[in-house]
Amino acid sequence: MKNGDRGSRYDLPVNRLSAVAAVLILTQSGTALAQNPSPLPEWVYSAGAPVMRRFMDEIPTWRVILGASVEVLPKYDGSHKYRILAGPMFDIRYKELAFLATGEGLGVNFFHNDYVRTGLAITYDLGRSPTLANELNRLGDVDPTPEAKLFGELVLFPVVLRANVRRAMGGYNGWAGDFGAYLPIAGTKRLFIFAGPGLSFGDQNYMQRYFGITEAEADASGYPVYTPSGGAKAVSFAVTATWLMGNHWFLNLTGAGDCLLNDADDSPTTQNRVQGIASFTIAYRF
User: Fold this and answer.
1) Most CB within 10 Å of its CB: which of 68, 110, 127, 156?
2) Which CA distances in Å does 30 have to 10, 67, 121, 167, 196?
3) Measured between alpha carbons, how far is residue 238 from residues 28, 30, 186, 189, 199 in Å?
């Protein structure tokens, strides 16, 4: 790394740039078990990816991170009750061309330079489990489904802007997406913190499956018929912190909250418009 050049180019202290580089090299995508719906802004799943080349003279051929994560998140969008979700975390990348990660999915980068990253990925939506039928008064479940995701990131250093649009291949059978932004807010040689907002949206199919109530569901549940429109679903904010325990091991803590908007907030199934999520990850970089 050419610390002197980088520091003068971006007007940031050399020690902060070194901290940024260390975190990006070791911990890219160091969180995320659940995909949407979730109070996590979508940028959390890829934090650091578009700016890594700015701090590395050469991108490694392979980067492999394996670990485990635990998340506490709402039982469903708008629920006042929470559940615990635990499982493996992995992030495998080949140069700047391809990746397989629990957060970002399986994808390729069409284009990648110091300022822009764009690509296509296959990810997933967890749906709404039938085990929630009693809490939702026998409303229909939403099957888990793969999604095709088109994404793009723009670096206005130190701010990174990210947008994505996803098409479900089943489940809610519609379109959804997310706009977000993040930046580093604190850093040392062992600890670094990113933070930023997000705005999620869905089309009419998405909103109907997650927040709407059909006539048949109304008859079964006692809820009134409700037909939401597509549009903005929620605004969110997240903070993710990574602590390096050595050259390979690291811990990641992420906290986020969102506020349901418009027809999502007005749904009869929405008990809490403000929701939160907490995530803990321990991982090892090979």
Assistant:
1) 127
2) 25, 9, 18, 25, 16
3) 16, 14, 14, 22, 12
Query: Rounded distance, CA 17 to CA 7, Å?
Result: 7
- pLDDT 10s digits, 1-28: 444 344 333 344 444 444 444 455 445 5
pTM of the entire predicted model: 0.84
Q: Are 40 and 279 in contact (CB under 8 A)?
A: yes
Q: Are strands 175-187 and 274-285 parallel, antiparallel or unpaired?
A: unpaired
Q: List b or e across 183-206, with b for residues whose CB sees 16 or more CB atoms inside 10 angstroms.
A: ebeebeeeebbbbbbbbbbbbbbb
Domains of the chain, earliest start first: 3-285 (2.40.230)
Tokens, residue 53:
């080349």
Model confidence band, residue 83 (pLDDT cutoffs 50, 70, 90): confident
